Amino acid sequence: MENYFLYIAIFMCVLVLLALYRGAAGPTVLDRIIAISAIGTKTTVILALMGFIYRRSDMFLDISLAYAILNFIATIAAAKFFRSRKSINPGERCSIDEGGK
Known about the structure:
Helix content: over 70%
Order of helices and strands: HHH
Oligomer: single chain
Structural class: mainly alpha
Number of domains: 1
């Protein structure tokens, strides 16, 4: 049964590499934020699978839950940052009122 979990963990690592490519080469900031969030989600699953592989699921599940919470908070913070910036694309100017000009 450990081999099954190991194969799933290796497959998840391949999916992380694909999401890492999208995060590095994403055409927009939104693509990059979503890719980094997907990497965090896959890392959470990999941590849980490692717990089952090493038969220490209690410890690894606690770590994966803490990592999932941090990933969620980081994604929300990035989304709020770009919402307040009013511009998602890096080439565009921000449409923030500049002192009544």
